[in-house]
Amino acid sequence: MNSPKLFLTRSLKSLASLVKTRTGLPSPIVGGAVNIVAYHRVVADIAKAEREAIRGLVVSTETFRRHCELLQTAFEVVSLETAAPFLDGTRRVKRPLAVITFDDGYLDFYEVAFPILNELGLPAVNFLPTNFMGGGKILAHDRIFWLVKLAAEKRISIRAALEKAGIENAAKISGKRDSLAVCDALVHLPNARREKVISELERKIGESAFEYPREYQLLDWEQIGEMQGKGIDFGFHTANHVVLPLEDDAALETEIFAGKSELERRLNRKVVAFAYPNGAYNARIKNAVAKAGFEIAVTTERKINLPVKSDLLALGRISLCEESTRGLKGVYSPKVAALRLGV
Ligand SMILES: [Zn+2]
């Protein structure tokens, strides 16, 4: 039988290892660093969202509010553009800074997250894939997730559809048991191939008509315009949310250069911040981003952004979802949250 003390020691040890594996960061974050956090969607019904969407993309309203309040206690929460001169050493950090970022421009940013940010007086930036805004289109990763989920539920094999779309390792991918792993493999494809996969899957599964969930919807330009100037900035996230290193130079013209101009025209202002879709970049992509005139670019690498030494075109971020700050009991844990957010 375990003594209470032994049990406690073990619990603390497992908590420590849980936090270590989930954060990958030492804690607390060293003084003077800029802590950039990354979200996708904030949802009212987390149980539903975790069933119907990629889990790593959703956080509940309550947890998001707690995160914001926690960040406010330990950091000065500033916009990304305000943080830039501290990151390149032009200005010295007095109080640790935090930046709240969102990717993909989901509709619930307007409906759920923005009112909370507004109430707490916190700035944030949302990185937009321009071609998807306002047109009722749904992002590839959500479509793929939904199609793979439906196929699994209806016990429909997706192998033939993948083969038809020209996927070489169709058997291996379709044989994976974990739907998220299948989804991940199909998202990380060149965009033209990925679209082919989606239309083949839609055809296969669409035999019994289906609709994508409303929660996959994105912002329209009117909502974006309303939030602009109310503490919300908008950055660029390519035209079509492509995995940039998989695209050739001609595609970069559309995805980076033309897309940036389109966003600037829509926002009627210069856009200097960029987020690499899926965090994917290399030297060629970074050069293109710099050439297009971006001054700040964020990745999904879990690294601490130190003043002076930070590469402004490859800044690290802490990606957060509901799962990130759950404790051993499977519910929100203030201790895990403090460690995860570097407080
Ligand atoms: Zn994205």
Structural write-up:
With 343 residues, the protein is α/β, with parallel strands linked by helices. It has two domains: 4-42 and 61-136 and 218-340, Glycoside hydrolase/deacetylase (TIM Barrel), CATH 3.20.20.370; 140-211. The protein is built from 14 helices and ten strands. It has helices spanning 4-23, 46-52, 61-74, 80-87, 107-120, 140-153, 159-164, 170-174, 179-187, 191-205, 221-227, 249-267, 283-291, 334-340; strands spanning 34-39, 41-43, 58-60, 76-77, 97-103, 124-128, 232-236, 273-275, 296-298, 318-319. Strands 1, 4, 5, 6, 7 and 10 form a six-stranded parallel sheet that branches. It has a two-stranded parallel ribbon with strand order 2-3. It has a two-stranded parallel sheet with strand order 8-9. Helix 13 links the parallel strand 8 and strand 9. The model is unreliable at 1-29 (pLDDT under 50). The site of zinc ion has 5 residues, from loops.
